[in-house]
Amino acid sequence: MPVSYLEKTKIFKLDAGDSTYVLRVADEGYLLGLYWGAKIPDADFEGYDLRDYASSFSPRNEIVGEGRFSPDVAPIEYSGFGTGDFRKTPVALRNADGNDATDFRYAGHRIHAGKRAPAGMPGLRADTPADCETLEIDMTDRTTGAALTLFYTVFKDEPVISRFAVLKNTSDRPLEIEKLASASVQLNAMDFDFIHLYGRWGAERNYVRAPLAHGHQSISSTRGSSSHYHNPFAALAKHGADEESGEVYGFSLIYSGSFDITADVDYYETTRVNMGINPDGFLWHLEPGEVFETPEAVLVYSAEGLGGMSRAFHRLWLNRLIRGKYRTEKRPLLINSWEAAFFDFDADKLVSFAERAKEIGIDMLVMDDGWFGRRNDDRSSLGDWWVNEDKLEGGLGSLIERVNALGLKFGIWYEPEMISPDSDLFRAHPDWCLHVPNRPNSIARHQYVIDMSRKDVRDNLWEQINAVLSKYKIDYVKWDFNRNLTEAGSALLSAPRGEEIFHRFVLGTYELMGRLVDTYPDLLLENCSGGGGRFDPGMLYFSPQIWCSDNTDPVERLAIQFGTSLCYPASSMGAHVSMSRRAGFETKGNVAMWGTFGYELDPNRLGEKDLEIVRKQAADYHKYYELIHYGDLYRITDPWDNAYRCAWMFVSPDKAEALYTQVNMRYYHCPFLLVRFRGLDPAKNYTLEGTGKTYSGAFLMNAGLNLSDCPRGDGSSFTLHFVRE
Ligand code: GLA
To answer: Which residue owns the Cα nearest ligand 1 atom 7?
Structure first.
């Protein structure tokens, strides 16, 4: 069984794939996080004596460890605040007397098959209870009456442990939660590099790697969404761990709101990672008997470097997180109207896109922003989700019929969480946007944020969305989110619940998205937030694909897609070929093929030569669909270390087929280019398509191929397709 409890030593052993995680209930109920790393068959931890956990100035618990035990030094698994542990603690509560001291001790545990997700939030799924096992550890803080349950789920064949925490107020007076992390993780070392993905609009998820030092390092969002700026993902890689080898610990939070991931290196050279909802801007009021649940955190261990970690995350999201039929069913190849027309379209123009798209082999037309209310630019109408028949003469039904008659499916754009001051909805309900009394609202992209915490608001949005979706044949929705939260207050939430709005907003969004995908299970949902401003596992749960960036320049996309791939699979990365100025259509296609693939241009503007390339791309989309969507990714040359070229490959899970892609950012002067491939079966032979030449997997991976004759000019690119004999 993946979770075992050794009564004699009071040790919990969690065996997840090739990894082991060990907890111990020490004297007086202290719960210690003893180990996380490569698999250990036995787990006695006899030498981990409680006497060693104290130092000068350490507040002691004198009945434990012969008076030489202190929460100041011990690897307390989920530490309270103000009772001897001076490090960053995962929890901060304030009781009705105004005290904030807490000290959680073990009270009991349960081990059972299967798992559940935290209430109202996305989470990993067990298809059958046998897929995983869950350990629930109850902890209590006697003084405040706070009862904590820590959930650990182990997926037995994967190096993955998922966690969340549930806090119940068992006292007879209210409690305020100031901080409640989803997970707190203890690591017995500090020789790590902290890896994370920072970014901005148009340049999301850049790879950053820097050694940990004493003190703490954190990434976070206070924006109410996971944001372009930091992604709710981090990794700790042992110094020297690289793409293929070395230990890497990956951390990801299944949450789409403000988050925080902090690595705290203490004075004794151990590291604690706390991750969860950002305590900045968070305060939750808990009446007696009430319960609060955190989002789910996911921990991945890899002994095969960053590549191993990424592949584990990719498999996990595909198999255990993403829901709906398009997780496994082939997705239509789409063309989107945004960069082709922006707001300037009518029914005939859209049909003309569809006609040419049909010739190319495209399966679906997506009508982006501008079809509703009186929206002809970004200054109005968010909230007025009725069809603008002045623009779409004959109405939406007639447009969809014309598109369907060509054999194409039809998709549409929404931005439900926003409201334009210039909209009928805002004029009727000025208190439906987030706002605080006596303070003017900040405006961004000429819009306010709608109050998703309110059920009446969500019901109104649902009525409007459902009126369109139930009437017309719509196969796809792009759900956008184009600003962050400010003046975050709700007309229905006042003290002491006012600050709950940030989290309640996220819960409201999840509830509405859930209604959408539950009511329309055949709908393909794509998330978006000014490009990839909400590219997180919370959104991935509802939508199998997320628009990766508004930047469609193929060369700049390389860094964005490389960074995104650290945690997210190709099948989730919305990537389109556009009219962007750099590089030819071949390279645009090769880059977009490392993603969902589609088009974002006016196909009538393509010349005959480009049309030919584009037609071949559409055929390649089908040819390589399975390989790219379900294959294993190997990053070969990354854009941070190599100024000249970027290369990656996909290998089918059975290693029968592989596709190598190389994009040259700059001309490479060296006369000789040798590339070693990865992920193949060393004992099998592979034929390089188009050449008739055959090589052993061992040769391709160790000696490598001389690619000196392949294209190497600025912005050029090529692919190599290997098929096992
Ligand atoms: C955002 C999206 C774009 C497009 C526009 C429409 O910026 O990222 O793809 O949908 O909104 O306004």
So the answer is: 530
Q: Which residues contact ligand 1 via a Cβ below 6 A?
A: 338, 368-369, 413, 480, 482, 528, 530-531, 547, 550
Alpha-carbon span 513 to 462, nearest angstrom: 10
The mean pLDDT value for 551-557 works out to: 96
Beta bridge partners, 238, equal 192
- Residue 466 three-state SS: helix
What per-residue confidence (pLDDT) applies to 50? Answer: 87
Q: Is the pLDDT of residue 535 over 90?
A: yes
pLDDT band with cut points at 50, 70 and 90 for residue 404: very high
CA distances from 160 to 14, 90, 274 (A): 10, 21, 17
* Predicted TM-score (pTM) of this structure: 0.98
* Structure tokens, 532: 């990839």
Strand-pair category, 598-600 with 577-578: parallel
Q: What is the pLDDT of residue 74?
A: 96
Kindly state the tokens that stand for 202.
């148009």
Structural contact between residues 423 and 381, judged by C-beta atoms closer than 8 angstroms: yes
Q: How far is CA 269 from CA 37, 45, 192, 641, 653, in A?
A: 17, 19, 11, 29, 40
Rg (CA), the chain: 27
In whole angstroms, give the CA distance from residue 429 to residue 501. Answer: 19
Count CB-CB contacts under 10 A for residue 42.
8
Model pLDDT, residue 44 = 75
Cβ proximity of 13 and 42 under 8 Å: no
Q: Is the pLDDT of residue 693 over 90?
A: yes
- Ligand 1 centroid to Cα of residue 122, in Å, is 25
| 141 annotated active-site | no
Question: Residue 37's pLDDT is what?
Answer: 97
- C-alpha 570/C-alpha 629 separation (Å) is 6
Q: Which residue from 125, 135, 159 is spatially nearest to 250, judged by alpha carbons?
A: 159
User: 161 with 14: CB under 8 angstroms?
Assistant: yes
What pLDDT band is residue 675 in, cutting at 50, 70 and 90?
very high
For residue 47, pLDDT over 80 is answered with no
8 A C-beta contact, residue 500 and residue 493: yes
CA–CA gap between residue 717 and residue 645 (Å, rounded): 9
Query: How many CB atoms lie under 10 A from the CB of residue 687?
Result: 15
Beta-carbon neighbour count of residue 306 at 10 Å?
25
Give how far the C-alpha of residue 607 lies from the chain's centroid of Cα atoms, to the nearest Å.
38
Average pLDDT value for the chain: 97
Given a contact cutoff of 8 angstroms between Cβ atoms, the answer to whether 578 and 342 are in contact is no
In angstroms, what is the span from residue 701 Cα to ligand 1's centroid?
42
Catalytic residue among 85, 131, 369, 480: 480
Asked if 579 and 610 count as a contact pair (C-beta separation under 8 A), the reply is: no
Q: How far apart are CA 674 and CA 661, in angstroms?
A: 14
Nearest partner of 557 among 530, 582, 528, 526, judged by Cα: 582
Gap from CA of 528 to ligand 1 centroid (Å): 8
pLDDT digits (tens, 9 = 90+) for 408-428: 999 999 999 999 999 999 999
**If we measure between CA atoms, which residue out of 527, 483, 485 comes closest to residue 505?**
485
pLDDT tens for each residue of 567-585: 999 999 999 999 998 899 9
CB 434 within 8 A of CB 448: yes
Expressed in angstroms and rounded, the spacing between residue 403 Cα and the centre of ligand 1 is: 22
> 550, 610, 632, 638: which one is catalytic?
550
Nearest CA to ligand 1 atom 6: 369
**Relative to the CA of 531, which ligand 1 atom is closest?**
8
pLDDT value of position 41: 86
Q: Is 480 a catalytic residue?
A: yes
Burial class (CB in 10 A: 0-12, 13-18, 19+), 293: buried
What amino acid is encoded at 257 in this protein?
G
Q: How confident is the model at residue 170 (pLDDT cuts 50, 70, 90)?
A: very high
Q: With 80 as the cut, is the pLDDT of residue 187 above it?
A: yes
